[in-house]
Amino acid sequence: MQNVAKLTRRGFIKAAGIACGYAVLGVNLTREAAAAAMEFIGLRQASVYNADANIYKMRKSQENPTVMSLYAKDGFLSEGPCGHKSHHLLHTHYFDRAAKVQALKDKGVELKF
């Protein structure tokens, strides 16, 4: 027979914590504690968003005066954001190094990533 309710470890710990809360504190007090926690989370989220909106005046990199001066007509990257020089300097390239890593492992080198 297949188990209908499969719980992960995290789900089990959460369910056990809620059950213990109900057993020790009772249903109403546990609901009030959960509501207070959710209210705190909401206040914390609002304060983080508020701080982010008020502290960082430049929220877009393309509005940054330094970046704008780089791409200005007499700037270093005057050919524009998609120009050859900006592409060469600002974009990265992928190199597959899996074979070299495997060769080191075969030699017995222990790599720590």
UniProtKB/TrEMBL annotation:
Gene Ontology molecular functions:
electron transfer activity; ferredoxin hydrogenase activity; iron ion binding; iron-sulfur cluster binding
Q: So what EC number does this one have?
A: 1.12.7.2
- The signal sequence is none
Tell me one Pfam family matched here. Fe_hyd_SSU
Q: What superkingdom does the record give?
A: Bacteria
The Iron hydrogenase small subunit domain covers 35-98
Cellular compartment(s): Periplasm
Question: Sorted alphabetically, which keywords does the UniProt record give?
Answer: Iron, Iron-sulfur, Metal-binding, Oxidoreductase
**SUPFAM superfamilies from the entry?**
Fe-only hydrogenase smaller subunit
For this protein, the record's Gene3D superfamilies field holds:
Iron hydrogenase, small subunit (4.10.260.20)
Against NCBIfam families, the record matches this protein to:
TAT_signal_seq (TIGR01409)
> Can you say what this protein is called?
Ferredoxin hydrogenase small subunit
Organism expressing this protein natively: Desulfobaculum xiamenense
